[in-house]
Amino acid sequence: MASSFTVCRLHTIGRGSLVKCLQKVDTFLHRNIGTNVVAVQEEKNGFKSLNAVQAERQEQAERSVLISCRSRTNEKKFLKYIANYGDIQKYFFYESYGMYAVVEFANKESVASLFEGTAIPSISHESLVPFKSRLLSMRNLDSVDLPNQPSGKKRQAQTSIPINELIQRLSKEESIDQQITSLTEAYQLTEENCRLRFLVCSLLKDIAAGFFPECTIKPFGSSVNGFGKLGCDLDMFLDLDGISGKKATMPKSGLFLEYQMKRANLERIVTQNILSVIGECVDQFGPGCMGVQKILNARCPLVRFAHQPSGFQCDLTANNRVAMKSTELLYLYGELDPRVRHLVFTVRCWARAHGITSSTAGAWISNFSLTVMVLFFLQRRSPPIIPTLDHLRDLAGPEDKSMIEDNDCTFVSDFSKIQLESNTETLEQLLCEFFEFYASFSFRTLSINIRKGKEQNKPEVAPLHIQNPFETTLNVSKNVNASQLDRFVAVCQESSWLIQQNNTAPSRDGTKGKANITPWGVSTLLLPSQVAGIKSRKRRIFESSSDRIKSLLESLKNTNNQQNQS
């Protein structure tokens, strides 16, 4: 579900500093979020594991509330009222079907105090479901309520910037390396967006905790692996492994207590039953949860719904531990070398611009498959930029041992044990080499395998074979057909030629105005492809770069004229 989403910058408030903050703010901030992206973790000497990052963010989320601001008021008055219930640690505002505020208190007691001062709505013509959540509404009795729906006012979408705007931005950079960095900053998740994702998980946990008090709900996939793009879905995992009593030791003699529990023949049936009940509760009791679907017969059963206050499309799964390990692995690779994330974001953006990937199900290459292809390419550099999964497994200690349904998901968690080889290739070199690598890759006979870090013979007949890093008998690209693979190869060949022809920034000549910005470098790769003759990889027709640039400039000019007229 697409929704409007505008965020102001994140505000941090220390103890005793609220008064100073209030002196500086007078009205709601409606600024779009900037491109100065804060990483998922603070920059420190060394690395922080994904588990540590998640634990910290979950603790922050449990001290936070989400407030719908239904009435006109200013920021100063809002904060002064909320501060009556406890010290505010951080806060920010955003728009999604109305104005919302995320407020993080210094402790959980402040949330409890806020609850004590919160009233149940008085509605005469409807009946209320008496479920109290940390999704609240702020009303101003001295002002008229605002409809909590999108108005005619222009709002920033909860997606990355439009492709034409991105091309303009990249065309202003001085080098291809700067273009790739700028693209990453424009597309990756912001600090505020990450916090909101963990808060939505925490709100959902409040519902599930009625049945499973010790459960946790964690985001996984793009939301936390470091490769998430603004607007991506929120994938969540209901974790019941941490409940107490599972590791209790049975005495050799004497009395012993154990819980009485329902039983089922298969763990899958248990998972389906749990998600069925949680899905029903989300549908009936979850404020802001819309369009709930229980997709229980899928290979991985899930509950899908739209969380309207945040604008996220959500998928809740359980017993999906392999996906959690895949998330941890991608996070680790992204932390080892900054070039990994930069290259993945650029290749993903390029692929979406050419229809190689899609947000809908089909025969397209998935973002996960594309990410694995980038990782494999980086393992094949000389010297390698990132290690193989087998090498990471060999470095693992006893505490890293992980067997999930007979799948070896073991790899090292201590970053200090990983010694990287010295590879000084630039982002520009890597992007050019990526296109050349896959433009000539023997997909017909070879398989991509990041566990071994080298090509292997295909174990099955499929146009594209990418081995699942942990469930090694599975092909993560099994859905891709020959036509889509041919298109990928053809566009790689075209892009390799294009970036070599347009690798130098044009002279500015002191000109001003958007219409005079000439796309070059990465920006030319985002123009519509002119590949023809897909059925035969040897038969390709390239439109000249100048013609393509001219076509784009006309498009940008028309867009600017429309904006000026509006």
TrEMBL record:
The keyword Protease is annotated on this UniProt entry: no
Domain PAP-associated: 427-472
GO cellular component terms given for this protein: mitochondrion
One Pfam family per UniProt: PAP_assoc
GO biological process, one term: RNA 3'-end processing
UniProt-recorded Gene Ontology molecular function terms: metal ion binding; poly(A) RNA polymerase activity
RL domain segment(s): 50-118
UniProt keyword annotation of Cytoplasm present: no
Poly(A) RNA polymerase mitochondrial-like central palm domain span: 176-334
Gene3D superfamilies xrefs: 1.10.1410.10, Beta Polymerase, domain 2
PANTHER family to which the protein is assigned, alphabetical: POLY A POLYMERASE CID PAP -RELATED (PTHR12271), POLY(A) RNA POLYMERASE, MITOCHONDRIAL (PTHR12271:SF133)
Name of the protein in question: Poly(A) RNA polymerase mitochondrial
